Amino acid sequence: MILKIDELIEEISKYVALHPGDIIATGTPAGVGAGIETT
Q: Which DSSP helix (H) or strand (E) runs through 9?
């Protein structure tokens, strides 16, 4: 990840009010792994 979880929460909270129970969805967008070969 680019940011650690605590850094991510700190950055998001600069723009959005976060409340107990809020969910922050993180992950890889669709299509990113399409070019990866598996063995």
A: helix 5-13
- 18 in Cβ contact with 9 (< 8 Å): yes
CB 24 within 8 A of CB 12: yes
Angle at 28 between CA 38 and CA 26, to 5 degrees: 140
| pLDDT at residue 39, rounded to an integer | 72
CB 26 within 8 A of CB 8: yes
pTM: 0.59
In the chain, the amino acid numbered 35 is G
Cα 10 off chain centre by = 13
